[in-house]
Amino acid sequence: MPSAxxxxxxxxxxxxxxxxSGLRAVLSHRELIRxxxxxxxKLKYRGSVLGFLWSIVNPLATVxxxxxxxxxxxNVPQPGFPFFLLVGLLAWTFFGNSAIMSTGxxxxxxxxxxxxxxxxxxxxxxxxxxxxxxxxxxxIVLLPLMLLVYRRPASLSLLLFPVFLxxxxxxxxxxALILAxxxxxxxxxxxFLELALSLLFWTTPIIYxxxxxxxxxxxxxxxxxxxxxxxxxxxxxxxGDWPDAATWIGAAAYGIGVLLIGVHWFLSVEEQLLxxx
Amino acid sequence: xxxxLDIQAVSKRxxxxxxxxxxxxxxxxxxxxxxxxxxxxxxxxxxxxSLNVRSGEAVGVIGRNGSGKSTLLRLVAGLYSPTRGRVxxxxxxxxGTMIELGVGFHxxxxxxxxxxxxxxxxGLTRREIGALYPAIVEYSGLAPFMDAxxxxxxxxxxxxxxxxxxxxxxxxILLLDEIFAVGxxxxxxxxxxxLAALRAKDRTIMFVSHVPDAIRALCDRxxxxxxxxxxxxxxxxxxxxxxxxxxxxxxxxxx
Lengths: 277, 255
Fold this sequence. Notes:
The structure holds 2 protein chains of 2 kinds. Chain A has 11 helices and 1 strand; from the N terminus they run βααααααααααα.
């Protein structure tokens, strides 16, 4: 197409990246995000005999082991413990797996980053969405099953699930952005993360209830970013009632706060990523 | 014809890390002992390069290894930003890159899935890819293999598939990096034909190559880089002769 007259030329390096430019970039690359998520899903289940069934069997096996250990070996019986445990465990798995996978989102995609210009933000984001898809698939199968087995009516409070899930996705994307970029600068992040995740897991009320924790230790739990989410989901799914105000505030604060910090920092170092991998 | 690429006094500096700071250890120990500190060596890949490319032009960029050719191409592609100077490109143009073929290809996915992924990486929507898909498959000559996983392809077949996608994206500005260095004679011939067809459609091309014949066949202008500086910018034959003198080689003979 022969162009008539002078075209307007722009300097792509001009203008600082902002939250708005990040959002616009993500929206204009929906197709790439969709393809990256689909690729991961296909790769995960292709060639395995049980396929998606593994995503159901794995959490159930973990629940079985913990139930055996706590209910029978340590003898701390609690009614409906497997159901209670599963609710927190699935949400945690979404968070933890996203965090682990995100450390490779930049450094393991070197060939992509070196050859094509696109917002790098997309790579950790796709990682989180892939794990979100898995989380939703497992919960769609396991939640009705649990309600049925434990004969609990689905309560109206379940309608709040998307709201808390949205905050959790925000938190997880923020964490993934930070970890993905940080790994490009320091490869040690992966080792550090193993330690951090196990600390966070045990300071989140997943295996125990928040109320079992002695009063003076509770502040420690509140600093753990997944605590409000685990508590919220336990209320929505297991107890069938409404989470209290503190849980709301905690979930919203962690979700929005960590997302803002993650996006801001990621965009500020995005330019340097190519030279660091 | 209007200017499409305006490269204004561009310099690019890299840091060569002798003591990799990717390790937290280095940062930590560096706080106490100077000799543990990260050692950075500056390297200027490009120095004060200015260049205009007009709409419909095909510019060949030649130079020895490490002369800054690929850095220049990556700056125009927007992969790097310049340390000094500015690179101006049209706000609305699709810039296609053939810096590496088959970017994002995954061995476990089928040929078809890889085409969709690779095209999406290059910024196409699903509808656009769907419309181009038959042409891509036909061009590659790999129609019977599209449902087989890529790992069952030979490396030549993988390259052909990658090039088929790239060739059919039809960007307004095309940046090519030495794709002729790979592939057999048949593949190289197909590449040249495709590029000639793009030329006929008045696409703007920036082409990094070592092959004088490819430059002759495709370009109407040559730029020569040496140690990051632009030494020559002008007519093709004159430029190739200049480059031959520069490298003390025999003047290349046309086949």
